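Need residues for this backbone.
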């Protein structure tokens, strides 16, 4: 093990990673590692480059995958973890993975040391949001293979908070969440933006004001909502809390490596946890600050399954920083606002669902949910958005019609194509405890019918 490189200004910086697991900054100290987080970016990048070389050498020695240059279908060929596992099976402490709903599930093997490193990193980012020892952190997310809930729990425990792993996804659990939040009055909440809005809706139906929960901090991952201004405002108004966005990919856990801080202004790329590049989706070349592309990630602290230049397929834009909080990391001003494969094309225009989410969520009479339907008649694509109207206009046909017309005009301005808006009554659509899925593309059905005839 190399010695910490204090000369480079990088506190507790060595390979393999090692941390003082009992250390906590003073509560009034805004930074977990003051030098590392505020130093000149070029100086930090020099240390990161050296670390990347160490990680690559480590992975080359231990993983056939990297020696064979990114062999496809690694886990299928070498189940269950692929040939990029760099520790022995006896060192694996936790198994997580994807759901496998779109194919073979991906397995994540995490060593005991890596889980401690993950907790340290998540705690750092949560500290930057203002979470402090002694706070109570309510975790309203599914506890399953999903990494989000477990990562938030690990960070909360490392921070010496009172962790409340409440969970989500069970029938009737949202009403129970309202009762527990009102009773325990936690300081912080973690979940998806959709679920926070769902809890708010249920609370109001039960005659409870979500502001009475006393939440100070709400941090989110799993979907773009917390970086969509209109959705953020809905949550802030409902709870009276400060909202933070965070999260990259489960494969890249500690997934809070993209995380907003008290400076707001976007998610920071915590480059000394996971090195992030934003590249052109086609050429994979780095895009300059101010440009848009897809993030590519490299682990700097994982020894069990280190990912080296993992292409995310997400969509973002980045700026050089620094943040208003004083940290000198690059900033994603709009967060992760979609996936490249979520984009759809209607009459020649590239459209991302998050753009539609932003428009409808900003409407005064919006009822809380919507569906995006793409269809085709003859050779023409058609876009329709079914939008719930709020209870305030229910029964007023003139107000409902005006709501639809306003929505259509706003969508055409933003999207550049006409979208037919169909107002529907409140609570038409099922709410979710997890990630919202709002796009229905019926064009494949049209194509299949054409092929048959």
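Answer:
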């Amino acid at each position: 093990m190399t010695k910490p490189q204090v000369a480079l200004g990088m506190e507790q910086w060595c390979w393999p990673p090692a941390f003082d697991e009992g250390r906590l900054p003073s509560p009034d100290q805004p930074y977990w590692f003051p030098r590392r987080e505020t130093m000149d970016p070029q100086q930090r990048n020099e240390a990161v480059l050296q670390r990347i070389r160490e990680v690559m050498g480590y992975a080359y020695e231990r993983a056939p995958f990297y020696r064979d240059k990114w062999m496809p279908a690694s886990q299928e060929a070498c189940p269950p973890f692929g040939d990029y596992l760099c520790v022995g099976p006896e060192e694996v402490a936790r198994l997580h993975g994807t759901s496998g709903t779109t194919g073979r599930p991906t397995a994540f093997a995490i060593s005991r040391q890596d889980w401690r490193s993950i907790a340290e990193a998540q705690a750092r980012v949560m500290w930057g949001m203002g979470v402090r020892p002694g706070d109570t952190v309510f975790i309203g997310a599914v506890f399953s293979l999903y990494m989000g809930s477990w990562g938030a729990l690990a960070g909360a425990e490392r921070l010496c908070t009172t962790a409340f792993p409440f969970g989500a996804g069970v029938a009737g659990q949202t009403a129970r969440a309202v009762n527990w939040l009102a009773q325990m009055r936690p300081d912080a909440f973690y979940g998806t933006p959709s679920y926070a809005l769902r809890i708010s809706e249920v609370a109001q139906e039960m005659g409870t004001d979500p502001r009475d929960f006393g939440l100070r901090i709400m941090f989110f991952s799993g979907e773009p909502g917390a970086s969509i201004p209109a959705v953020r405002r809905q949550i802030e108004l409902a709870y009276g809390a400060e909202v933070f966005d965070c999260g990259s990919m489960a494969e890249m856990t500690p997934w809070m490596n993209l995380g907003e801080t008290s400076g707001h202004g976007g998610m920071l790329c915590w480059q000394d946890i996971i090195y992030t590049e934003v590249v052109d989706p086609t050429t994979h070349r780095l895009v300059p600050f101010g440009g848009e592309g897809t993030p590519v990630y490299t682990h700097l602290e994982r020894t069990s399954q280190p990912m080296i230049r993992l292409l995310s397929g997400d969509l973002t834009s980045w700026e050089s920083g620094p943040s208003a909080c004083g940290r000198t990391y690059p900033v994603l001003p709009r967060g992760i606002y979609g996936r490249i494969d979520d984009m759809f094309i209607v009459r020649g225009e590239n459209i991302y669902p998050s753009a539609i989410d932003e428009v409808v969520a900003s409407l005064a009479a919006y009822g809380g949910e919507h569906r995006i339907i793409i269809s085709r008649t003859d050779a023409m694509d058609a876009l329709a958005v079914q939008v719930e109207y709020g209870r305030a206009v229910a029964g007023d046909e003139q107000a409902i019609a005006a709501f639809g017309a306003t929505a259509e005009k706003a969508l055409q301005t933003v999207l550049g194509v006409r979208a037919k808006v169909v107002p529907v009554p409140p609570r038409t659509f099922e709410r979710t405890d997890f990630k919202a899925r709002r796009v229905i593309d019926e064009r494949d059905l049209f194509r299949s019918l054409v092929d048959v005839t």
